[in-house]
Amino acid sequence: MTETIFLDGNSLTLDQVIAVAYGAPNQPRLELTPLAGQRVTRAAAAIQQLLQNGEIAYGITTGFGAFKNRIIPPDEVEILQRNILLSHAVGVGQPFDIPTTRAIMLIRLNTLARGHSGIRLETLLLLQEMLNRGVHPVIPTKGSLGASGDLAPLAHMALVLIGEGEAWGEGGVKLRGLQSLEQAGLQPQRLIAKEGLALTNGTAVMCAVGALNAWRALHVGQLVDIAGALSLEALHGTDLAFDERIQRLRPHPQQSNCAAYLRGLLAESEFTRHHDPANVQDAYTLRCMPQVHGAARDAIAYARWVIDLELNAVTDNPLLFIDEDTSQISVLSGGNFHGEPLAIAMDYLSIALAEIGNISERRVMRLTDEASNAHILPAFLTEQGGLNSGFMLTQYTAAALASENKVLAHPSSVDTIPSSANVEDHVSMGLTAALHTAAILDNVEHILSIELLCAAQGIDFRRKTLGPRARLGRGTQPVYRLIRRHVPFLEQDALMYPYMRVVHHLLVSRQVAAAADALVENSWSMTPVMMLD
Predict the structure, then answer these.
(1) What CA–CA distance (Å, rounded) separates 310 from 297?
(2) So what CATH class is 4-202?
(3) What is the DSSP string of 264-306?
(4) Quick check: pTM over 0.70?
(5) For residue 47, what are the contacts with CB-CB under 8 A and spacing of at least 6?
(6) Which H or E element spans position 232?
(7) DSSP labels for 24-51?
(8) Which of 22, 58, 284, 497 is catalytic?
(9) In Å, how far from its chain's centre is CA 480?
């Protein structure tokens, strides 16, 4: 039975965004609540009242940006709203994929449902039905400065509502906007005052990309613990550094959560090292996992917190307020479209994810370098080195990706460039930040899959010493078995990239995380960010 998500502008969750974005073929149906419909209708009527009164309001009876002082005659206000879509649709680059496009449309729909934007209910319902019937505009990824919101990409989205622009058809074919609507049994909408501006002015695109990033980052935050735990076992490391008493003396909650999860993953392991006076501590990439992984968790938690707020924020301009007692209408110009909160959150997340990639790549190095692992494992994880290169080049790939991440993690939010004749003189570059975060996530997922592949190979070499019955940890054992169901122990060189792809698929399809959590008592968790009073 198809789920229905009721939108009111106040209660959209990240899980619902993910369900709408990735839920095919059983995607939830979207429906505005009756109260949201009433608020939208009341705000649209207020716009018409302003026009009848001959009042001047930005973007309604004036031009946009530097044209804010150009008064638009009443008989041309509808042309103005169409023109903003035509003139602002100047995006370039590869289009967003369908899940991201659906997230963009959903977030914009939810924002407008708050009833402060002046869009008519019938226009909003068209956007709703486009989502319900699978009409997906072609939206280029580049062209947004992150203030005033994501103007160019949102203009591409909104063009389809008026029968212009492009949308995706079957098999990735691009259709004219009108054709895509007609195939779905929908008719284009003629925009009236304020509607074009309401559709294009806001943070829906950077928020959508950021929401998908946050969801993926939560998963990556778990995977780095799993990969690190399996590497520790392959390297005969000790779990004593994860003792709860150590964590209590430095009470960062994410550090403690990480240490607890690592203890759960490694519980009952016969591959870890007990107290050894001749070898009391491991290298930092093993010993400091709670501190490094935990700090990354802090950034992930912060990004999630920002996204949760932004999903139900009204981010266009100007905004309408109607006094409940007097029905007095106020049109206020502000700056909720400015993407700085998202830009900084994505930059922070990018830095944390790059660090996850860095520490994982260093563990790959330790797994493949016999000098670094004290000859616990053979050079490059192969017994016939020289004739065989073994896993030598997997570390090269991990290093290349980690190095690229260091460039991508340069903060976008510290840059700004003036626009609209210097009226819009400070911008956030929020969408750029979110796109960089997405690219880093791609790289980190590959680095972690390489670590898992190498660690599994290392485990098999350890078994030659410990015996075939030696137990891995409660959480790492099912992960190792999952990998071995798809990838064999490599006794000699073989075509490597298909195996890398298989492990990457196991990782991104969340099978690795599910396998680990099946037997771990302290399942992976993250303490929410605490809001200040």
Answers:
(1) 20
(2) mainly alpha
(3) HHHTT-SSS----TT-----HHHHTHHHHHHHHHHHHHHHHHH
(4) yes
(5) 60, 118, 192, 193, 194, 320
(6) helix 204-234
(7) TTSPPEEEE-HHHHHHHHHHHHHHHHHH
(8) 58
(9) 28
Quote the radius of gyration of the chain (alpha carbons, Å): 27
- The pLDDT profile of the chain, 533 residues, written as one tens digit per residue, is 689 999 999 999 999 999 999 987 788 999 999 999 999 999 999 999 988 888 888 888 888 877 888 888 888 989 999 999 999 999 999 999 999 999 999 999 999 999 999 999 999 999 999 999 999 999 999 999 999 889 999 999 999 999 999 999 988 999 999 999 999 999 999 999 999 999 999 999 999 999 999 999 999 999 999 999 999 999 999 999 999 999 999 999 999 999 999 999 999 999 999 988 888 899 999 999 999 999 999 999 999 999 999 999 999 999 999 998 898 999 999 999 999 999 999 999 999 999 999 999 999 999 999 999 999 999 999 999 999 999 999 999 999 999 999 999 999 999 999 988 888 889 999 999 999 999 999 999 999 999 999 999 999 999 999 999 999 999 999 999 999 999 999 999 999 999 999 999 999 999 999 999 988 876 777 766 654 43
Which residue is listed with tokens 């303490």? 527
- At 450, list the tokens: 């390489």
Q: Which CATH class is domain 210-310+344-517?
A: mainly alpha
Q: Which residue has the tokens 């939010």?
A: 413
Q: CA–CA separation, 347 vs 137, rounded Å?
A: 28
What is the DSSP pairing of strand 140-142 with strand 329-332? unpaired
The domain segmentation of the chain, as residue ranges, is: 4-202, 210-310+344-517
Residue 261 annotated in active site: no
